[in-house]
Amino acid sequence: MNFIKAESYEALSCAAAEIIAAQIAEKKNAVLGLATGSSPLGTYACLSKMYAEERADFSEVTSVNLDEYVGLSAENEQSYRYFMNKNLFDHINIRPENTFVPNGCAEELAREAAEYDALIARLGGIDLQLLGIGLDGHIGFNEPAEFFTKETHVTELDASTIEANARFFARREDVPTKAITMGMGAIMGAKKILLIANGKKKREILEKAMYGKITPRVPASILQLHPNVTVIYSEI
Ligand code: F6R
Fold this sequence. Notes:
Blueprint: E1 2-6, H1 9-26, E2 31-34, H2 41-52, E3 62-65, E4 67-69, H3 80-87, E5 99-100, H4 109-122, E6 128-131, E7 153-156, H5 159-165, E8 178-181, H6 184-189, E9 192-198, H7 203-211, E10 229-234
């Protein structure tokens, strides 16, 4: 595992963007696994800037996002599809038809989940997966549990995750309690993993995940078994 300490959120974001840009420079048609949340906002801003400066070309890139809230449509401003369009896809030259986010409004969520895994398999897996980490150690929305789940699946969000997400919603009762998330199979199947953790509040869980016992109670701890993980963290 490769650890990079960044002096600020901006430095963390640019370092992550450079790694992503290097990936697509090396393989123009790379498959990027992408995340939402606060952590990657700066990374996406840096990537958008790199595209504007002609330092990154996304024309042949495909993206697959980790997760989506159940019940939120693409038009809903709190949906992860909306987030991705607004914060990244609208600013770069990725083809919209090459961007994938699980459909949280699918009539049959189990089928949507199975099709998402089939899609990732058809794409040949993920070249580089960007991850944030939840305060309870979740990656994607693989919440602490008795076992790791391999497949894309529907999950009940933990109380602490709902609490953390509440900041984005006007009313408490609007915060979704379920999500559809990539499982550990697709995440661990990625050729490279890039985890970003910003701020003091992530320090304790990051240490537990990276140096503690490998357990589904701390979902990110499974990353200790992956051969190519880079962690960029900042403590400010
Ligand atoms: C989002 C996701 C989540 C977040 C995590 C951290 O797509 O998969 O695992 O990465 O909840 O969120 P932030 O970055 O908001 O602290």
